[in-house]
Structure formats: structure tokens, C-alpha cells
Amino acid sequence: MVTDNLKQDKSSLQVVADEAPFRQVHEPVPEADITWRSPRRDAFWQAIPAWKDVDYDTFIDHKWQERNAITTPQKLLSAVQELVSEEFLDDVRKGFGEAPMAVRISPYLLSLIDWEKPYADPIRRQFLPVASQLEPDHPMLTLDSLHEQDDSPTPGLTHRYPDKALFLTLDTCPVYCRFCTRSYAVGLDTEHVEKVSIKATEDRWDRALAYLRTRPEVEDVVISGGDAYRLKAKQILKLGHSLLDMPHIRRFRFASKGPAIQPMKILTDHDWTNAVTEIVERGRKLHKEVCIHTHFNHPHEVTGISEDALNLLFERGITVRNQSVLQNGVNDDPATMIELSRRLSFINVHPYYVYVHDLVQGTEDLRTTVKTAVSLEKHLRGATAGFNTPTFVVDAPGGGGKRDAHSFEYYDRETGISVYTAPSVKPGAQFLYFDPLRTLSPSVQRYWQDEKMRNEMISAASLEGKRQRI
């Protein structure tokens, strides 16, 4: 009897559904507008004169990508000489001379730049400096603005949060980002920066691992650098198994920009991908989480090659999360950031963080305001599922760690000073972030150049921050 009633109910519901049209809560989205599901799969690299005859199999060989990386203006000229003006190349030459980071850009990334509009292109802005767009550094800039070395018990290891450590395993990357917060250590020395050494040596690693064995409160480790993409397979296995052998380490991740800037390595460097897979699978058996954290900043960085690479990691059960850096002229508008989040979600990469750009030498033109971050997060919230919506954070200068951008104690939009606290990291301390000077009025910009006025503005903001916290 109950079964017959259920059948009748279902039948009645079906009649109602067939007879009544759906109530259109939202207008249907035209297929053409669902752009995030169709990453480009054309031979885009063949638009570069130097690579017009390069086939797909050659292009996705990670060794070919490494051999053909652009590291000098001369190599750039050789690759794109028919596409840009001599004035632009001269601008790049001068930009290279001013950069705190050595320049290295993969053929993959170089091919994704719109060379008809190189000055405005979001990928070019991140990796190739041009002198004409550089701005004077903020007066409060320091080379290690996050004070990572102050929280370092042994070279290359930062222990800031009680249960987490950052392990800088090496000092090289497959590409060098202009905005790198570790320009104090990563890459070769430049005209303006002599780097702190965190080279990949067994002795330094053994000291870091020995420290971690003595700290049972540490459960979480980031393997970074530099870039974990540059670790050899045997090094991935050594570090991974060493951490898995520590009972108190419950989770760790390999931090790599690689999937965003050279995804073909995942497809063609089988030893590296298999090594990561081995560590992830052993971790799972031990009930420990091992994953990859990567670094896409713009929708144009997601291609069909990205999709294939990330699909392979997904098939192997490897979780991938993304940490973007908010940058002026790159991803500082709602449409771009929403598109990026949707593209990443479609290839099973979880948008995790968006960092307000750190104070990094030679990158004032890329920084945005805290106000921009707060506004963008409001637009993003609700555009997609909550677990695929990134949190916008300020990595507090001076070592306060990551703070939700909107969680400031005080924010003076006129002076550009925001005040944060970090009770669980450094109780009682204040941490100040400074908006880029170009966003301030001319009179306030002049105040920042005067040491007395600068100190008065900082003192006033600090005092007001204390009052707000009370």
C-alpha cells in the first residue's frame, strides 16, 4: 500500500512538472558566455617567429622549455624581433637593468603575451619589466618586508605560526616573477640586490629537518623556495619521505608556480610527477594530506595544456590549490578575478588565497590598495561556490602573517595606512601596510617623502589602531 501511494505521488509530481514551466530565477547563460570551460588549444606559440615551425610534441617537452627560456634582452629580441618595436625592446633592456630579480620567462608564457599590445598585457606586466612603467619604491619598503629571516631558527626555515613551518628548499625557479616577495634570496644576484643564500644543499636540509623533528607542535610544512618544480625526483622523495616519517607532521604541500607557467612538465617529466604521486599516495595511507599549492594570476594563463596537466594530477588524487597575487593592471577588476576563479574551478584547482601585493623592490607599479582587495572580495563572494571563492589577505609586513584584508583595526584611505594585529602570532604587536603612493593625493605623496611627516602619519595611525582595538 505504501509503495502504491509513493508511485502515485511520483506520478502526480511528474504531471505537474510536465505541465508547469520552470520559474526563471536567472536568465539562462548563453553557451558563448561560458568562457571558462573552453581554454585555448590552438598552436599559439607558432605566432612567435622563432617558434613558427615548432610542433606540439616539441613544445610540450619540458626540457625544450628549459633550453629556450628567455633570460636576456638578446634572447627576447631573437624570439620576438618581428613583433615589437625597437623602442619597446630598449624599454625592456632598461627595465632588466632596474629589476631586483633576474629575468627568466618560459617559452610557454612568452607565447601567451599579446605582442600587439605588450605594454598592457597582463602576463608581460608580471614577468618582463619595462623602465617606462616603473615607479619609485614606497619609502617604507624593506628587502625582506615579511621579516621571514627574523623567524628563522636555521637557514631557509621560517617558523612563524605555532603549528606551521615554511621550508625554503632551494633558490631557483623555472620563471622569475617581478613581484616575488623573496627577491632577497631567490635567483641570481642583480645590480641592485645581493641575495641571501638558500641553495639546495644536503647539509642545510638536514639541519632544517632535524629542527622539525624536535618540534612536536609543528603539524604543517610548506616546501617552497624557489620553486618545488626545480627539485629533482630523488629530492622530492627524500624530502617527502623524511616529513612523512615524522609522526607529528600531518600535512605538507609542495609550493610551485610550475603548473601555471610550465604545465607541460607534469605531462612529460614522468619522474617528477611520479615522485610527487608516490609521496601523496603514501601520505594518504598514513592519513596525512600532501598536496600542491600553485600560482595562477590571470585567466589567460589557463590553457588546454594546463587542463591536461591538472586533469592528470586530479586522476592521481592530488589536490591542487591556488594562491594569486593581486596586481594593478593584471587582475584587479571583478570580471577578471571572477573569470580566473571559474577557470581554475573548472580544472579542479581550488582558488585559495589572493594576496594583496607585498612591498617588493621595483614593483610599485604592480601594487594595489587594501580598498581594492576588499571591494574585489565583495564582488567575488556569491559568484561561485564558497569553497571555490578565495580569501583576500594581507601578509602583514614585519612578520604578522596572513590577515584577512578586511580585518584591519584601522585604515586611513587618505594616508594609505592600514593597521593589523595578529593575536595568535605576535600578541600585542601592530603591523602596518601601506597603499601605493600613486593612489594618494599629491599633497600626501609629498608628506611621505618628508621623514618627519612620515613618522607623524605612522604614529597617528598606530594610535588610532590601538583605540579601535580597544
- The CATH topology assignment of the largest domain is TIM Barrel
Spatial order of the strands in the main sheet? 1-2-3-4-5-6-7-8-9
| Residue-averaged pLDDT | 90
What oligomeric arrangement do these chains adopt? single chain
CATH structural architecture of the largest domain = Alpha-Beta Barrel
Number of domains: 3
Rg, Å, rounded? 24 Å
Ranges with pLDDT <50 over ≥5 residues?
none
Helix content: 25-40%
Write down how many β-strands occur, each being a DSSP E stretch of 2 or more residues: 12
What about the largest sheet? 9 strands, mixed
- Give the termini separation: 67 Å
Number of helices: 17
CATH class of the largest domain: Alpha Beta
Main structural class: alpha/beta
Order of helices and strands: HHHHHHHEEHEHEHHHEHEHEHEEEEEHH
In one word, what is the shape?
Answer: globular
Can you identify the CATH superfamily of the largest domain? Aldolase class I
Proportion of beta-strand residues: 5-15%
Briefly, what is this?
37% of the residues lie in helices and 13% in strands. The protein contains 17 helices and 12 strands. The N and C termini lie far apart (67 Å).
Provide key terms for this protein:
3-stranded antiparallel sheet, alpha/beta, globular, about 475 residues, TIM Barrel, 9-stranded mixed sheet, 3 domains
Characterize the structure shown.
With 470 residues, the protein is of the alpha/beta class. The chain folds into 3 domains: 45-133, no CATH class; 149-407, TIM Barrel (Alpha-Beta Barrel), CATH 3.20.20; 410-470, no CATH class. The protein has 17 helices and 12 strands. The chain has a 9-stranded mixed beta sheet. The chain has a 3-stranded antiparallel beta sheet with strand order 10-11-12, with helices on one face. Strand 11 (417-421) and strand 12 form a beta hairpin. The radius of gyration is 24 Å and the shape is globular. It starts with a helix and ends with a helix. The relative contact order is 0.10. The mean pLDDT is 90.
